[in-house]
Design brief:
11 strands; alpha/beta; globular
Length: about 290
């Protein structure tokens, strides 16, 4: 039998472990989906071989990965050098080297056009994100808890603790949770017993920073967050926008496609609709402008 290196073995295992969705993972409709994008490869980590097919649900508007890994194999997609796991001062050092195509774009007219569009948009619509986040995470009353769901490194939790929050970091990666606990925060492993550990209305802030697009059952997660969140609490979600200028221009090479880790995409309109259906009466939408290829 021919020897294979570890990366090749992982790629073969991942290919065998894919599940092919017949219908939308959010609303379950199997009769009205259509092709949306084809991701050419796992360009960030090369953990899985082959193409990845995304479909659009015409019923609820969600875009989803139709040939995703089985959930028990998802850990293959998040190696130790996955950037959100690293401290802020190390993330640039472990960033993957840009491909020849990306380097060409960075020097070419397409990238310059995208930068020009961003400057125009920033002038027309000044960035409100910083102002909004200062309001969301302003100094709390004593005893108020903040849950960073899908926290990655404890960098944000460290800042939140300095601001007066009782901090909880949750992640499915055991090493990440150990790092959160070592930094002095409450660390929780996201498993089947995770949500029952939280009483109703016990948390005042929940942060999901680029997490929702990774979840296999986002509706259940949002429903549980609604349960544990205090009536005066706030949920902060950041997600990539599949209706953005960058998505439209770069299509299968859109940076935030990040296949096969990103399994579901919500447009701003559809995300706001979903949140209201789950029970949020007040939803504020803020766009973050950035140029990435």
């Amino acid at each position: 039998m021919a020897a294979v290196d570890e990366k090749t073995a992982s790629a073969h295992l991942a290919a065998d472990a894919r599940e092919h969705l017949v219908g939308c993972p959010l609303c379950g409709d199997a009769s009205s989906t259509s092709k949306w994008r084809v991701g050419c490869s796992d360009r960030l980590h090369g953990a899985v071989a082959g193409e990845f097919h995304y479909r659009r649900c015409r019923s609820c508007g969600v875009k989803f990965l139709s040939d995703r890994l089985h959930e028990q194999q998802v850990s293959l997609l998040y190696p130790d050098d996955y950037r959100p796991y690293a401290p802020d001062d190390m993330r640039q050092a472990i960033a993957p080297a840009p491909s020849l195509v990306i380097r060409a774009l960075a020097r070419g007219p397409l990238y310059r056009m995208a930068s020009l569009v961003q400057r125009v948009l920033e002038k027309r619509w000044p960035d409100r994100l910083g102002t909004e986040l200062r309001i969301v995470y302003r100094a709390p009353q004593p005893g108020f808890q903040l849950l960073d769901f899908g926290c990655g490194s404890p960098s944000f939790l460290n800042e939140a603790r300095q601001g007066g929050w009782q901090t909880i970091g949750a992640d499915f990666n055991l090493q990440v949770v150990d790092a959160v606990r070592a930094a002095g925060h409450q660390g929780e492993v996201v498993d089947d017993a995770f949500w029952p550990r939280f009483p109703d209305s016990s948390v005042h802030r929940v942060r999901m920073n680029h997490v929702l697009e990774h979840l296999y059952d986002p509706l259940r997660t949002l429903t549980e967050i609604r349960r544990v969140l205090h009536p005066d609490g706030i949920l902060h979600i950041a997600v990539p926008n599949p209706a953005s200028f960058g998505s439209w221009i770069f299509r299968s090479r859109w940076f935030d496609l990040d296949c096969p880790r990103h399994v579901v995409f919500f447009s701003p309109k559809h995300l706001c609709t979903l949140l209201r259906e789950v029970g949020w009466e007040e939803v504020h939408l803020v766009h973050q402008l950035e140029t990435r290829v």
